[in-house]
Amino acid sequence: MDKIAIFGATGAIGAAVAAELRSQGRPYRVVGRSAAALERAFGSDPLAERMTWDPADPASVEAAARGVETIVFAVGVPYWQFQLHPVLMRATLAGAERAGAGKIVLIGNVYPYGLPLAPTIDESHPREPHTFKGRMRKAQEDLVLDADAAGRIRATILRLPDFYGPNVDKSLVGDAFAAAAAGRRAVVVGPLDGPRQYVFTPDAGRLAVAVADEPRTNGAAFNFAGSGTIGAREMLERIFAAAGARPKLFVANKAVLRGLGLFNPLLRELVEMNYLQTRPVILDDARLRAVLGDLRPTSYDDGIRISLAAARDLGRRAA
């Protein structure tokens, strides 16, 4: 199979894509801004070709994309700098086209949909984001879809719900695993009533590679519903129960986020997206199943068990 480059390889999803390629014995390229971070994450893997890039340098972007068939784009930006999403995508597409890359897979999320108009959302739902972050994510998606429509590069978007997994901390439930492992109180964003979806990061990595390899995904966006629909509070209770503990939670609602946001830019930016806690976007992934068949999502019990074991191991090593 053709070589894949992972832009944003040291992030949670990028690392999961790398792990999937490694499990298949496929050589791959990891691209990031920090040579030291790439060395720490992939220096022991002979299948991983490490390459740094500077998105502001067109030659650097072209070099990172040269000699690969597909780019999996999982580049994150600081939560208070979402205006960079279309900027980075525009630079990446230009470099990929000059380098002759054949396809790009954008790892997306639910933000471009805006407020949900139905209990479950498929890909036909309007993309009408009412938030700045949603508009920036939609602009990023539009660049990818327009490039495919113009015949400059083949493109696929894989939209994911919030994620969890081994050694994942930047998620809405990330602190719950560390807290349950350490026996402390978890800080979570509320309210906690109503349904949620979470994707286990190894599942996301596996499906990102699958859509990269599948020509029938070209030119389209696909939802992945992750491990299924679960109550937000139930998810947290299951995490603590797996650790043999009762849930200990500090729930930060919108008012608390506003107050704490005076001192913390991340918490300040979470206020804008707090609608997802009261009007969650629940994804329907029938289109993806029609192309790939059984998506084999990891059960919550198994995913929680694996993630909690990783959190305990990290805590032991830190101690």
Task: List descriptors.
single chain; 319 residues; seven-stranded parallel sheet; Rossmann fold; alpha/beta; 2 domains; three-stranded mixed sheet
Short description:
With 319 residues, the chain is α/β, with parallel strands linked by helices. 43% of the residues lie in helices and 17% in strands. The longest helix has 19 residues, at 300-318.
Question: Would you give an account of this structure?
Answer:
This protein is an alpha/beta fold and about 325 residues long. It has two domains: about 5-165 and about 200-230 and about 280-295, Rossmann fold (3-Layer(aba) Sandwich), CATH 3.40.50.720; about 175-195 and about 230-280 and about 305-319. The protein is built from 13 helices and twelve strands. The chain has helices spanning about 10-25, 35-40, 60-65, 85-100, 130-150, 175-180, 200-215, 230-240, 255-260, 265-270, 275-280, 285-290, 300-319, and strands at about 5, 30, 50, 70-75, 105-110, 155-160, 160-165, 185-190, 195-200, 220-225, 230, 250. A seven-stranded parallel beta sheet has the order 3-2-1-4-5-6-10, sandwiched between helices. A three-stranded mixed beta sheet has the order 7-9-11. Helix 5 links the parallel strand 5 and strand 6 (about 155-160). Helix 3 packs across helix 4 (about 85-100), helix 4 packs parallel to helix 5 and helix 6 (about 175-180) packs across helix 13 (about 300-319). The protein is globular.
Helices and strands in order, then pairings?
Blueprint: E1 4-7, H1 12-23, E2 28-32, H2 35-42, E3 48-52, H3 58-65, E4 70-73, H4 84-99, E5 103-108, H5 132-149, E6 154-159, E7 162-164, H6 174-182, E8 186-189, E9 195-200, H7 201-213, E10 220-223, E11 229-231, H8 232-242, E12 249-252, H9 254-260, H10 265-270, H11 275-278, H12 286-292, H13 300-318
Helix pairs in contact: 1-7, 3-4, 4-5, 6-13, 8-13
